[in-house]
Amino acid sequence: MSTNSSIDWRQLHGNAFTGARVLVTGGAGFIGSHLVEAFSALGATTVVLDDLSGGDQANINPFANVEFHQGSILDETLLARCMRGCRYVLHQAALGSVPGSVAEPRRYHDVNINGTFNVLEAARAAGVQRLTFAASSAAYGDSEVLPKIETMATSAKSPYAAQKIAAEAMLQAWSGSLGLDTVCLRYFNIFGPRQNANSAYAAVIAAFAKAVIAGKNPVIFGDGQQSRDFTYVANAVHANLLALRQTAPLGGTVINVACGQRVTVNELAELCLKILNRPDLKPQYQAERAGDVKHSVAQMDKAQRLLNYNPIVNFSDGLAPTLKWYQQVLGQ
Ligand SMILES: NC(=O)c1ccc[n+]([C@@H]2O[C@H](COP(=O)([O-])OP(=O)(O)OC[C@H]3O[C@@H](n4cnc5c(N)ncnc54)[C@H](O)[C@@H]3O)[C@@H](O)[C@H]2O)c1
């Protein structure tokens, strides 16, 4: 289902990607499929490597000029084949759940660390021009300092966060001494259509949508005063495209990708109930989850300075179409 159709990628990025061949690892997932959609609109050919452990081929079926390979970034032979002729790599494949990483640290380590190593090595061997990496705001830990600025010390509160921080260091090393230009885009709570609501570890907006559409109370872990910089997915796509278009080397630098707006989980729940018109439902509070951070809002000066990035869709403008999409796919 095409859902970014309201965004005119051509107007934003012109012919910058026309005829380019790009690899999106994890391209059948939520964010990856939105990258694929934009590249398709921009006249690029996208190679997707995804093992479908979290994604779904249906996410990318509607889009033109896509070569799909079902397989893992742990398969070096397949990776080398996918990488051939690619100008850019957008490394999105990962196991992405904080509680999942607490439950299965080794499996997460294999994909998020060893898999990232494989992607970097394959990109270097293929002479890729630039690689963008789906880094995470989880790297900031639960520091009370707001907003989060890229110069702050990192702090890993979960295996997932540790793996994202380690991967950033790997990207910097591959840029510093192995000749591959890279950039770490630290995503802040990305949401939008195609985000999986059926996973046991669904992100909060997806989980709220699923519960409310099924007529159940949304579950909040903790007191709901935790805040997030919820970022509509088109903004993450835009930041990736801007990063690829930069003429100066980016050298593995870390850049926040967010909306710059602080919203509490209580406010989010209230807004979801309002948009979905369920005044009869109320949030249900459960114990805080291990590894969850309390507050998160980004400073975006660096993204503006280095990438000329500004969000193209704000929080509430992104929430309404997202909830409408969940209503369509989850029934009603
Ligand atoms: N959604 C967010 O808010 C957010 C925030 C920060 C960072 N990120 C990062 O962004 C990236 C994309 O996240 P998403 O939200 O789209 O999640 P997602 O689960 O929808 O996408 C990840 C994709 O990677 C694929 N994958 C997993 N293991 C693989 C493997 N071994 N080989 C090939 N493919 C594999 C999955 O099948 C899935 O399609 C991830 O790296 C995630 O850690 C996401």
Distance between the termini: 17 Å
Look at the structure and name the CATH superfamily of the domain at 9-190 and 233-260 and 297-312. Answer: NAD(P)-binding Rossmann-like Domain
Helix/strand structural class:
alpha/beta
Quickly name the level 1 CATH class of the domain at 9-190 and 233-260 and 297-312: Alpha Beta
Q: DSSP strand (E) fraction? A: 15-25%
Strand order within the widest beta sheet: 3-2-1-4-5-6-11
> What is the approximate shape?
globular
Listed once per kind, the bound small molecules are:
nicotinamide-adenine-dinucleotide
Helix content: 25-40%
Write down the secondary-structure element order.
Answer: HEHEEHEHHEHEEHEEEHEEHEHH
The low-confidence runs, each spanning 5 or more residues with pLDDT under 50, are none
| Tally of DSSP helical segments | 11
Mean pLDDT across residues: 95
Walkthrough of the structure:
The chain is α/β, with parallel strands linked by helices. The chain has a domain at 9-190 and 233-260 and 297-312: NAD(P)-binding Rossmann-like Domain (Rossmann fold, 3-Layer(aba) Sandwich). It is built from eleven helices and 13 strands. The strands form four sheets. Strands 3-2-1-4-5-6-11 form a seven-stranded parallel sheet, with helices on both faces. The protein has a two-stranded parallel ribbon with strand order 7-10. Helix 5 runs parallel beside helix 6. The structure holds nicotinamide-adenine-dinucleotide. Nicotinamide-adenine-dinucleotide binds at residues 25-26, 28-32, 49-55, 72-74, 92-96, 111, 115, 134, 136, 187, 189-190, 196, 203.
